[in-house]
Design a protein that fits this description.
By secondary structure, this protein is mainly α. Helix content is about 80%, strand content about 0%. It is found in: Membrane.
């Protein structure tokens, strides 16, 4: 009886939330997908004009070049919005008395998650279509987990703070993409490539290692509020950041090895 009542309450909550904010949800997701298409097309046009070596790239390299333009633009947008919403605005502040921090949301926070969901849908579709040239299994796992967590927080309003903390890690994406661009452009031995390597290590350490430690501490301190979320929400808060943190550690080790190899070749 209690289980049925709980399921009914969850269904009513989801239905009422979607009815009240359906326009924000659908318009933001669709807008995010169209924005990705626009960035891809603009990247194709401007790169062919200003980078003479673009025409000499293989078809798969051209696709990846434009795909990385999409991820760079999304990373800049979502990092700025995540930092604002999670740390600078009052929406998730402990000083606020407007309910549990795990249940707070706003029209802006929901809209931003919708745009990000549109990006993850687009990028995941491209990864699957061109698999494995745009990324292997680890990229699929990363994007699937991210898309599920973003979509759940967007539709239910639960756990948005933790989703935004995780999304701050996208701050490392522009550096990763720049490294690939420099490599393709034949600038692997340049000073810019070396500086980029050091910046990647620093950014990764802050945004994908230390920030995740802070997230786990926040969840621990606020676990009395976390456990009042729905079962699937608790699962996402507990499991998704942990899996992503493990992936981040693996990738961090690869970045360190790559930087070490670059330094060794210069001596």
């Amino acid at each position: 009886m209690e289980i049925n009542a709980y399921q009914t309450r969850a269904e009513l909550l989801l239905r009422s939330y979607m009815l009240s904010d359906s326009f924000v949800v659908y318009s933001s997701v669709i807008g995010g997908i169209f924005a990705c298409k626009l960035v891809y097309d603009l990247s194709q046009i401007f790169t062919s004009i200003y980078f003479k070596g673009y025409a000499g790239l293989s078809k798969s390299q051209q696709v990846e070049w434009n795909n990385r333009s999409i991820s760079t633009v999304h990373a800049i947008f979502i990092t700025a919005m995540s930092l604002y919403l999670a740390f600078w605005s009052d929406l998730f502040s402990d000083d606020q008395l407007s309910g549990l921090v795990t249940m707070r949301s706003s029209t802006l926070s929901t809209f931003v998650l919708g745009v990000s969901a549109g990006y993850f849908i687009t990028d995941l579709a491209m990864i699957l279509w061109f698999y494995p040239s745009l990324g292997g299994l680890e990229y699929l796992v990363h994007h699937l987990l991210s898309m599920v967590a973003v979509t759940y927080a967007m539709l239910t309003g639960e756990g948005q703070l933790y989703v935004y903390m995780v999304l701050v890690s996208e701050a490392t994406t522009p550096g990763i993409n720049l490294r690939w661009y420099l490599d393709v452009a034949g600038l692997k031995k340049s000073k810019a490539y070396l500086i980029n390597g050091f910046m990647m290590v620093f950014a990764w350490l802050v945004a994908r290692i230390l920030l995740f430690i802070y997230l786990f501490c926040h969840v621990y301190i606020h676990f009395d509020q976390v456990r009042q979320m729905h079962t699937f929400g608790i699962f996402l808060v507990s499991v998704v950041p942990l899996v992503l943190a493990l992936l981040n550690l693996v990738w961090f080790w690869k970045i360190l090895k790559g930087l070490n190899k670059t330094l060794a070749k210069r001596h």
